[in-house]
Amino acid sequence: MRPLAVIGNVNVDLILGPAAPWPKAGTEIIVDHDELRVGGSAGNSALAWAALGVEFSIAANVGSDQFGSWLREAFGERAAKWSVRSERTTLSVGITHPDGERTFFTTRGHLPRFGISDVLTTIDGAAMAGGYALVCGSFLTDDLAHNYDTLFDWATTHQITLALDTGWPLDGWTEKNCTKTRRWLSRCGIALLNEVETTTLAGLDDPIEAAREIRSHMPEGAIVVVKRGPDGAVALGPDGSLVTVAAPKVEVVDTIGAGDVFNAAFLAALANSRSIEACLLAGTQVASRAISTLPRHYGGPLASEEAVR
Predict the structure, then answer these.
(1) What are phi and psi of 63, to 5 degrees?
(2) CA-CA distance, 261 to 168, in Å (whole number)?
(3) Cα(134)–Cα(192) distance, rounded to whole angstroms?
(4) What pLDDT, on a 0 to 100 scale, did the predictor assign at position 21?
(5) Is residue 112 within 8 Å of residue 143, measured between CB atoms?
(6) Nearest CA to 2 among 210, 111, 161, 146?
(7) How far is CA 183 from its chain centroid?
(8) Structural domain count of the chain
(9) 258 lies in which domain range?
(10) How far apart are alpha carbons 59 and 10 in whole angstroms?
(11) How far lies 22's CA from each of 27, 91, 257, in Å?
């Protein structure tokens, strides 16, 4: 199996809900569910890998409060070299709704201070040679995003294929944010996007044609994945061929982090030299299991092996 790493945002998630209708100012409502858990795109992907029995490295940082200590403890030895910033740890409060949608309230916290030095001191480039590194939370990790060229050069030196999932920009998909993302993708071997991101970046309504447009500006042999939620996923493989898979029908409990779990399962299958179709199946099956179970369940190592056959 090729080595795997994730680089990006790890923070604390407080999940509450379901809430309907949205409460009026000055009132209080009671909800049925609460959960305090490791969150952030990088954190969600790492938790999925750990549950699936996949070996990986993770580069992140934390704040200097009790939540920062809690996050480091959650990752044990993998967090030994994480830097501790003077800011408070980033906290996201996610309010779920009966239709499966959610609303987030997130503090800036420590994430903007996650930088290139945090990556280079945490992940052994030589040990990662020939592997895959998932880069996520681009619009939250300001210091690192400003040094993405250095990150891309580091990956090229060590023959590491970067898989990019930027997450949603805080100020939306402005032309400036689209331009930055297109430039980043020109240095990445894998794009992991949802449907809205794909069509917005390409300026095309059809997600498949949009994926082809994005791929035309990426390195030769690039893979573009479009995550379509309940409609499954599609991908353009290294040779440009189109692959489509459907998602299992499940009763949704909590969709938070579904795309991050998909990323983890997809890349785990890819690192095991599975076909693109098998990788898509792994992503959709493991993510569907995660969003339909409470407490969240990923299936364990045996399930991950079955999913990628």
Answers:
(1) -85, 175
(2) 16
(3) 9
(4) 86
(5) yes
(6) 161
(7) 19
(8) 1
(9) 4-9+41-62+115-307
(10) 9
(11) 10, 21, 22
Instruction: Give yes or no for a contact between 10 and 138, defined as CB atoms under 8 angstroms apart.
Output: no
Q: Is residue 196 part of a domain?
A: yes
Residue 89: DSSP 8-state: P
Distance (Å, whole) CA 133 – CA 146: 18
Query: What tokens does 60 get?
Result: 């992140």
169 φ/ψ sector (left φ>0, alpha ψ -120 to 50, else beta)? beta
The angle subtended at Cα 277 by Cα 162 and Cα 264, nearest 5°, is 40
CATH code (residue 149): 3.40.1190.20
Is the whole model's pTM more than 0.85, yes or no?
A: yes
The residue written with tokens 């061929």 in the block is: 241
Nearest C-alpha neighbor of 95 from the set 2, 187, 7, 18: 18
Closest CA to 200 of 189, 190, 185, 187: 185
**β-bridge mates for residue 15, sequence order:** 35, 94
In a domain, 20, yes or no: no
Look at residue 90 and tell me if it is in a domain: no
| 3-state secondary structure (DSSP) of residue 107 | coil
| 163 touches 260 (CB < 8 A) | no
Tens digit of each residue's pLDDT (9 = 90 or more) over 2-46: 999 999 999 999 999 999 888 899 999 999 989 999 999 999 999
Report yes or no: 146 and 112 within 8 Å, Cβ to Cβ: no
Residue 259 DSSP symbol: H
Residue 70 lies in a domain: no
The DSSP-derived string for 204-243 is -SSHHHHHHHHHTTSPTT-EEEEE-GGG-EEEE-TTS-EE
Residues 184 and 163: their CA atoms lie apart, in Å, by: 10
For tokens 């009671």, name the residue: 30
pLDDT higher than 80, residue 138: yes
**Structure tokens of 56?**
């990986």
Residue 79 CA, distance from chain mean position: 18
- Cβ-contact 43, 9 below 8 angstroms: yes
The predicted-structure confidence for 202-241, as pLDDT tens digits, reads as follows: 999 999 999 999 999 999 999 999 999 999 999 999 999 9
